[in-house]
Amino acid sequence: MPPDVGYTRFRGNKGTAREGGHRVPAIAWLPGKINRGTDSHEIVGGIDILAAFASVAGVELPKRDRDGEPIVFDGQDMTPLLTDKADKWTRRK
């Protein structure tokens, strides 16, 4: 293990496909929406951020582009995890 990585209980480190290379803590702050002390141990990815931002802003993501071709957003709205509604969130397969 490189000396600058530190000790974790996960195998691997940044730059590897192992769990230690992917688990990174995140902090979210949105007054009036996210309650202080809310935490979650669910796994989300950077791909989920766009859907969450759109949801918080009240914006519906487009279904088609200007040429009528379908647009697919692979991310999933993770705001239920941040707003104490985790029971309403399930990861799509």
TrEMBL record:
UniProt source species: Rhodopirellula europaea 6C
Q: Which InterPro entries match?
A: Alkaline_phosphatase_core_sf, Sulfatase
What molecular function terms (GO) are annotated for this protein? arylsulfatase activity
PANTHER family given in the database record: ARYLSULFATASE A, ARYLSULFATASE FAMILY MEMBER
Q: What is this protein called?
A: Uncharacterized protein
Gene3D superfamilies named in the record: Alkaline Phosphatase, subunit A
Q: Which family does it belong to?
A: Belongs to the sulfatase family.
